[in-house]
Amino acid sequence: MDKNFILTSGNKVHYWIKKKNIKADTIVFTHGLTGDHSLFKKQIDLFSKDFNIITWDMPLHGLSIPYKDFSLRNAAKDLKLILEKENIQKVNLVGQSAGGFVNQAFVQMYPENVVSFIALGSTPFGEKYYKNSELFWSEHYSEIASLIPYKLYCSLSAKASCVSKEGQSIFYDCLLNLGKQNMKIATKAYYEDFRNYNEVKFNCPVLLLVGQYDKIGYVKRYNKMWAKKTNYPLIMIPKAGHGANLDNPSFFNKTLENFLKEKDC
């Protein structure tokens, strides 16, 4: 994939693109909190056969550090600038965990540019889905996590996020490269801003995906509530945790492939 970046308000946001042709549909893969673009390495080869592919390091992650004045809206604006730079008008948004937060902000701001929305182990905007105690824990996550020696934290977090050894290894490397201070900054910024957004009204096909063994917070419960309230399809990915696209890439890829073929906007 070709590496590039945009400059916005003094921030440098990096992305990678594999462009089939200007007329092809585009998939944007957005990683979760404390990850980076490498978390979608199992998807690139398959989907680049038929789609333009973009992955990126979200603000406060990977090469997109440092970053001033973070908000999910500003991250969505950054993604829009990436699309404009590449002359891409319409996108299928795939967001893992907090990547789904950025994508929901993008849908609210630029609905005309969204072909479909796929959430992988993510959760919906809207405080009504959450108990105050759960939101309190999230907002203080960085303080709690910082009490643990960082290499131990990386190991525990990787094992909690993925059930496969390969998935754990990939996620561990992301955390280790991020570093303790940047982990604290990123988690605090994303979780604190999350409460500032109302539930999204989608005008495009939506697919909810969750790993069978996802043990991160209450992600599975939130997705069941999300699906029940909206009738969006919810698919459990077998033999997979929070990083389900790494744990069971064949099932995830086939499910995503089928959805993208069958959706009708």
From TrEMBL:
It holds the Pfam family Abhydrolase_1. GO terms for cellular component: membrane. InterPro entries: AB_hydrolase_1, AB_hydrolase_fold, AB_hydrolase_sf. The keyword Hydrolase applies. Residues 26-123 form the AB hydrolase-1 domain. Keywords: Hydrolase. GO terms for molecular function: hydrolase activity. This is Alpha/beta hydrolase. The lineage of its organism: Bacteria, Bacillati, Bacillota, Tissierellia, Tissierellales.
